[in-house]
Specification:
The protein has 216 residues and is mainly α. Helix content is 59%, strand content 0%. The protein has eleven helices and no strands. The longest helix has 27 residues, at 172-198.
């Protein structure tokens, strides 16, 4: 019997990469609300940011590699601490993302992988996505990267498949430019997840984040 296809969709939130004992009761949906500045989460975001600012340099760098696999990106974002607010953190992350060299981008892309779809996609859709991802990876030599934050589970499969097919028509340079921007957006969501998780974390060591265990 053929194996079940990969349930590939958006790049996962940071919480899905944290050690099991560290994840605790973290709700990954909080990240989306934080990005939009929703008032109910502002105090929590500030508390998480304070803890992020206070992390030892090697721990902050390791944590940031879970948000973007470029070591230079992680170093820049960690080095600019402390951040006065979450918007300043996102702005610094964006600046570092826009300044990625081609080598930095390749390093970050090598750390990405297609994660699991949320429940609801049909078996036929999963087969089509599996084939589309395989064709994409043969063509571009890295995983397909897209930020589908805010997309409902019911919409994910169709939107993802359409995006892969549309971007398969692009040349390598055009696709790398799109990937760079999608990585920037994905990093924002993961930073929101990180500060969200740090609101309830009693402490974290470099070993818990991994010395270099980014998103892939």
């Amino acid at each position: 019997m053929a194996g079940h296809p990969r349930h590939a969709t958006r790049s996962p939130s940071l919480s899905s990469h944290l050690p099991a004992q560290a994840r605790g009761g973290c709700d990954p949906s909080h990240g989306s609300h934080l990005l939009h500045g929703a008032d109910p989460f502002r105090d929590a975001a500030d508390a998480g940011l304070e803890r992020f600012n206070a992390l030892p340099p090697e721990v902050a760098h390791s944590a940031l590699l879970h948000c973007c696999g470029s070591r230079r990106w992680a170093h820049r974002v960690a080095a600019h601490r402390p951040y006065p607010d979450f918007g300043a953190l996102l702005a610094a992350a964006d600046e570092a993302s826009y300044d990625l060299s081609q080598a930095d981008l390749s390093e970050a892309l090598a750390c990405e992988f297609p994660p699991e779809l949320e429940h609801g996609a049909s078996y036929a859709a999963l087969l089509a996505l599996d084939a589309a991802h395989a064709e994409y990876e043969r063509t571009y030599r890295h995983a397909f990267v897209i930020c589908l934050d805010g997309t409902t589970p019911e919409e994910q499969a169709d939107q993802l498949l359409a995006a892969i097919r549309r971007r398969m028509e692009l040349d390598v340079d055009e696709e790398r430019a799109i990937c760079a921007d999608e990585l920037r957006r994905v990093a924002q969501v993961r930073l929101a997840d990180l500060t969200d998780w740090l609101t309830s974390a009693d402490g974290v060591s470099a070993a818990e984040f991994g010395l270099f265990a980014p998103v892939g």
